[in-house]
Every structure is written in C-alpha cells, then in structure tokens.
Specification:
97 residues; mainly alpha; 2 domains; 68% helix; rod-shaped
C-alpha cells in the first residue's frame, strides 16, 4: 500500500469519528480533500486510482509496428526521427505493445 492510500484510509476513519474540521487540524489536510476522499470511497467502494486511458495522438502505432518489422535493428532515436516524435514517445509505445 502506498503512502497516499494509507494516509487517506487513516484520515477517513478519523473523520468519521471526529468530523472533518478536527481531522483537518490533526492531519494538516484540507476539509475539501477529506470530502473528496470520502466521495471516492462512496462511489467506487475503495481508494484505488483509476488509470488514464489515453490514445496515441502523434504516433501512428500501425506505422511503428510496420517500421519495426522492416527495420528490426533500428535505434529509438532513428524511429523518433522517422515519426517526428520524442524518443520517450517511441519507447513508451513499444513498451505498451
């Protein structure tokens, strides 16, 4: 369990017993943050963050696959130059599949 989630669980438990204002003072957390965390638990039943589902905007994934098949020894820098994107963009696309 990572720090954000661990702290949020403690804050919510404390807030349910002592109220948002008291919890805000004890944990040095804003009352709005406390209400957001409570809302998240109410809607989803947990504090897990939802992953972002973003589409590739600049990089043509089909074109990248084809380029990798045709040039299996190409470096990331060469691929990035070919598709006019950053090296990190090509790397991330190849890691995601």
């Amino acid at each position: 369990m990572y720090y954000w989630k661990d702290l949020s669980v403690k804050v919510i438990e404390y807030a349910e017993m002592n109220g948002a204002k008291e919890t805000s003072k004890v944990f040095s957390v804003g009352t709005r943050t406390i209400s957001r965390r409570k809302k998240l638990v109410g809607e989803k039943g947990n504090l897990n963050r939802t992953p972002l589902n973003r589409k590739a905007r600049k990089l043509d994934m089909g074109g990248l696959r084809k380029y990798v098949e045709e040039h299996p020894d190409a470096h990331l820098k060469e691929m990035a130059k070919e598709f006019k994107v950053n090296v990190s963009c090509v790397h991330k696309a190849l890691m995601e599949g």
